[in-house]
Amino acid sequence: MVPQRISSMFANPEIGKQVVVKGWVRTRRDSKQVSFVALNDGSTVNNMQIVVDAGKVSEDVMKRITTGACLSVKGQLVASQGKGQTVEVQAESIEILGDADATFPLQKKGHTWEYLREVAHLRPRATTFGAVFRIRNQMAFAIHKFFHDKGFVYFHTPLITGSDCEGAGQMFQVTTLDLQNLPKNEEGKVDYTQDFFGVPTSLTVSGQLEGELAATALGQIYTFGPTFRAERSNTPRHLAEFWMIEPEMAFYDIVDNMDLAEEFIKFCVQWALDHCMEDLEFLNKMIDKELIESLKFVTSHDFVRLPYTEGIKILEEAVAKGRKFEFPVFWGCDLASEHERYLVEEHFKKPVILTDYPKEIKAFYMKQNEDGKTVRAMDVLFPRIGEIIGGSEREADYGKLMQRIEELNIPMKDMWWYLDTRKYGSCPHSGFGLGFERLILFVTGMANIRDVIPFPRTPGHAEF
Ligand code: 4AD
Ligand code: MG
User: Fold this and answer.
1) What would the pLDDT profile of 118-155 be if each residue is shown by its tens digit?
2) What are the pLDDT digits (tens) for 288-334?
3) SS3 (DSSP) at 339
């Protein structure tokens, strides 16, 4: 029989009912007359307290009720006399489904985040990670809900790609060639005609280019899938494998794009407040005392919208007044996370959408402004995170796009299909990419991106 989940026993407590609870032991406390076992089944951050009167179950079973063990408990749901829970289960019988001995790696509390990453196969059983992964699940659902309700089409773009023109990051090569014994052509180079696809291929850094094909057919689409970047950036905000949401919309200009991005993030954050309150309250208590307040702040305030050039002026004024940054500030510089966070956390104290970046530091496909210097880019900058969204209006003009491609020497011979969108019925269009894990970082208050994805991939780490 499938047991009732603990979350529903708390939500609709039927006092006096016979119940079966199955879950894993978090803690155990004993006195002479009674033992209290905190059981968690993953459905909620709250444990079900199991009350075991002395002598009720055999000594052998009692001995095996240790942290990490899996139990099936039969008993009666009763109103709790103790503090901290409304109902508890008065045990009548207990079956050990799986023992856990003293080597169980999650004994008690106080482990470091680094240690917990080493036991990533078991850390979903730690209370904080349960909360984070339940919120992650709700956020994924919220994203589909948001776009579905707006009539966007969920479109699947390939993970294996033969093109590297996005320029968004270093790529992971995909091959079935024997690396110990590579076939060579007459020039002495690797003979990719013998490789699986007959050409060099990589894991995608973005689904955008294929997303643009879809938007110029279906109108409004979004992708939501894994993305791979082989940068050696060992920061608390970078993963080698992360998930990205990329909406792409025909007939949207940069302002429509900003409106959508702001509405989208606010919807997701509001969804967390509406559907994850227990987990958020736990994280607010344990991780960040201002978490819930900061989520409410984001949903209830307009984001600042500011051209890059204005942003640089503000940063230069700060430097003139003695504010120190690790990286230099000048018109044309790529903003570092410290600059982005200064604008958001210290200057405006609000999320900021920065627009119209110098074309040199942005991708070739962005719509060029009349000034000849800037492009219609938009980055959404968030407190604690820095860049959470990157996007733009796209260059719809075939001639201008080709000119930029030639200036940048981008190898376009494999990209004829992308250029066809501008050849046949080109239209103004826009889109952006939201880093899913950066959203989860913001919503959970966690400090390191490695702790909001179940099995993080970073330089030197691909275990589990
Ligand atoms: O700014 P990025 O590189 O933009 C693109 O890839 C565009 N193709 C998006 C588009 O217009 N359709 O990446 C988008 C977002 C960033 O703002 C950031 O939130 C996240 O993806 N991101 C990463 N998240 C985790 N680890 C990394 N290494 C990331 N690189 C980017
Ligand atoms: Mg970016």
Assistant:
1) 999 999 999 999 999 999 999 999 999 999 999 999 99
2) 999 999 999 999 999 999 999 999 999 999 999 999 999 999 999 99
3) helix
Query: Cα–chain-centroid distance for residue 362?
Result: 23
CB 344 within 8 A of CB 352: yes
The CATH H-level superfamily of 6-98 is Nucleic acid-binding proteins (2.40.50.140)
Q: What is the residue with the minimal CA distance to atom 4 of ligand 1?
A: 390
Q: Give Cα separations from 236 to 226, 442, 443, 455 (angstroms).
A: 18, 12, 15, 15
In the chain, CATH 2.40.50.140 sits at 6-98
Q: Give the ligand whose atoms come closest to the C-alpha of residue 432.
A: 1
Give CA angle at 267 (264, 272), nearest 5°.
Answer: 130
Q: Do residues 275 and 444 lie in contact, with contact meaning Cβ atoms separated by under 8 Å?
A: no
Q: Quick one: tokens of 190?
A: 């690797």
φ/ψ (deg, to 5) at 368? -85, 135
At the topology level, CATH places domain 124-170+205-451 in BirA Bifunctional Protein; domain 2 (3.30.930)
- DSSP string for 7-50: HHHHHS--TT-EEEEEEEEEEEEE-SSEEEEEEE-SS-SSPEEE
Is 241 touching ligand 1 by the criterion CB < 6 Å? Answer: no
Query: pTM (2 decimals)?
Result: 0.97
Contact indicator for 415, 440 with CB cutoff of 8 Å:
no
In which residue ranges of the chain is CATH 3.30.930.10 found?
124-170+205-451
Calculate how far, in angstroms, residue 387's C-alpha sits from the geometric centre of ligand 2: 7
How many whole angstroms from 326 Cα to the centroid of ligand 1? 23
The alpha carbon dihedral of 255, 257, 258, 259 has a sign of positive
Q: Which ligand is nearest to the CA of 434?
A: 1
